[in-house]
Amino acid sequence: MSDCYLPRLGGIEVQVDDLAHHLREAGHDVRVATATPGPETPGVVRLLPPVRLPVPINPWAGADLRDLMAQAEVVHVHLGIVAPFASMAATRATRMGLPTVVTWHSMFGALTPLLRYAEPWRRWVRGGAVPTAVGRAAADQVERATGSVAPVQVLPNGIEVADWAAPAPPPGGGPVQVACAIRFARRKRPLAVLDMVHRMRDELAGEVDVQVVVAGDGPLLAPMREVVRRQGWADWLHLPGRLPRPELARRYHHSHLYLSPARLESFGIAALEARTAGLPVAGLEGSGIGEFVEDGVSGVLAPDDDALVTRVVELVRDRPLLDRIAGHNRTTPPAQAWPAVVEATVSTYEQARGRRAAAPRD
């Protein structure tokens, strides 16, 4: 169950599709229910509203959700920051006595004070739903909001290691190539990326040439391109837009470092892709990338932007350390490979079935 799904492109949309695909490959019968319009797709049920709405919601979906979920052995609900369709599914599933898993995919940032009104979440958990989140930081937020009715488990996003694994180290010599892939939206801090990479180049001027590629799309892409043009940075800072996965992997294989600027990152799938491609990841402490980035082993972590700039400059100057971290990442697959994530997901489904059998109905 997910408000947002393909053909919309985003973290939840792609992860839900990938999870469904890998569960089917493991022999499970999976149907994705969504309020997102799109083409007819096998295994996808689009419960669309009777009138056209500007966002993927459907307040009239209750009866259809009930009929669809009545056929399910387990209901897996995926929640973003605002998810009325998925929330309706969670409420109905627990009322129907169905085994239910709820996964939170987002950090709440400025909306955190509103979590005091998360009584529906507490009802789901008291009703037997298994609460999960894609990372420990997000899980801690949900635990605080639900008053620790039940511990929130980490059920991470997954990655197809073979799609990203680097065949060899990047070519030696030449500039240091820094990569980043983000949605160009305020929450993802694209302006902070431009500021940090400019400061890095200034500090390394005369020592190392730094070239930067920031891939991705979003409402701030055009303004950011205009900033790059006005500042005269186009010879070293490249904003190619959204790249297909194979092209993004190819870029990573020719890069030396990945910069992750987000503070409100519940997991950080883009950073995991870069880490799987062999790139040292530089990011902020307290975000979801701590699930797979160990400071000094698979990347560097810092408490704020200024410290992150300093850590990256130090890492670029210390080429043996940069190469050692890259070598570790190329030869050590992350724990979030899809076979392990599917196994953890199915285990959580079995837990939900056991918990539901013992829980009173709401």
UniProtKB/TrEMBL annotation:
<dbReference type="InterPro" id="IPR050194">
    <property type="entry name" value="Glycosyltransferase_grp1"/>
</dbReference>
<protein>
    <recommendedName>
        <fullName>D-inositol 3-phosphate glycosyltransferase</fullName>
    </recommendedName>
</protein>
<dbReference type="Pfam" id="PF13439">
    <property type="entry name" value="Glyco_transf_4"/>
</dbReference>
<dbReference type="Pfam" id="PF00534">
    <property type="entry name" value="Glycos_transf_1"/>
</dbReference>
<dbReference type="InterPro" id="IPR028098">
    <property type="entry name" value="Glyco_trans_4-like_N"/>
</dbReference>
<dbReference type="GO" id="GO:0016758">
    <property type="term" value="F:hexosyltransferase activity"/>
</dbReference>
<keyword id="KW-0328">Glycosyltransferase</keyword>
<dbReference type="InterPro" id="IPR001296">
    <property type="entry name" value="Glyco_trans_1"/>
</dbReference>
<dbReference type="GO" id="GO:1901137">
    <property type="term" value="P:carbohydrate derivative biosynthetic process"/>
</dbReference>
<feature type="domain" description="Glycosyltransferase subfamily 4-like N-terminal">
    <location>
        <begin position="10"/>
        <end position="161"/>
    </location>
</feature>
<feature type="domain" description="Glycosyl transferase family 1">
    <location>
        <begin position="177"/>
        <end position="326"/>
    </location>
</feature>
<keyword id="KW-0808">Transferase</keyword>
